[in-house]
Amino acid sequence: MTDVDKLFATPFSKVADFAFDEQVARVFPDMIKRSVPGYPTIIESIGLIAAQHAQPQSLIYDLGCSLGAATQSMRRHVGSEGCQIVAIDNAAAMVERCREYLSAQDAMLEEPLPAQVVLGDIVNYPLAPCSVVVLNFTLQFVKPEERLALLTRIRQALQPGGVLILSEKLNFADTNTQQSLEQLHYAFKRANGYSDLEIAQKRSAIEYVMLPDTQEQHQQRLQQAGFSHSHIWFQCLNFCSMIAHT
């Protein structure tokens, strides 16, 4: 059962760093829908993009899967024969609930794509050859100095014709752009029922945990990792999703 996100509605004397614990797992679907503009479109489209690029008898990875929204979307859309999804997250509370959600989805799909949910750290998890990898709002939580190595390992695991789907919150080098889109994002949150107190406390909690990059940094790093081409396929305010090709 999903609860309404009220985690930051009460004033704290000291705001602790954000963590994907049981409290967050319980409200996460509500939190992300009310916090990330365009999130439902991104999730549905990940399934469509994966369906275009998934190769028969291949693995698909959902890295930093949280509650498995992207995995569920891919299970609805991917029709390539013999594909399997491996969904990985390092938060036990998220993994446990993700397994419950996928089990419930099993009952609703005629021939559900096999999906395994693994508790593990994507930074050092050994990746087998695969045709699609999803990093949906995950890389921004990886230490900046570890991001290139992770992307390089993903690129090495991807088969020819494979793709990485990378969704991220963006920073902007131009101060005016950054401030304008930040203020619009806060307006989006207010319109979804968050108070100024909730917005401010969540910002404090996540400040040193989630470290976004600019679009230029992302694309330069993807090139360094060995991807031949990358482009944005979706952007709403300061949130975007990209496709990187082998």
Question: Please, could you describe this protein's structure?
Answer:
By secondary structure, the chain is α/β, with parallel strands linked by helices. It has a domain at 39-172 and 209-245: Vaccinia Virus protein VP39 (Rossmann fold, 3-Layer(aba) Sandwich), CATH 3.40.50.150. The chain is 43% helix and 22% strand. The protein is built from eight helices and eight strands. The protein has helices at 22-35, 39-53, 69-77, 92-106, 144-157, 175-191, 196-206, 215-225, and strands at 59-63, 84-89, 115-119, 130-136, 158-171, 213-214, 229-236, 239-245. Strands 1, 2, 3, 4, 5, 6, 7 and 8 form an eight-stranded mixed beta sheet that branches. Helix 1 packs across helix 4, helix 2 packs across helix 3 and helix 5 (144-157) crosses helix 8. The termini are far apart. It catalyses: prephenate + S-adenosyl-L-methionine = carboxy-S-adenosyl-L-methionine + 3-phenylpyruvate + H2O. This is Carboxy-S-adenosyl-L-methionine synthase. Keywords: S-adenosyl-L-methionine, Transferase. Residues 60-162 form the Methyltransferase domain. Homodimer.
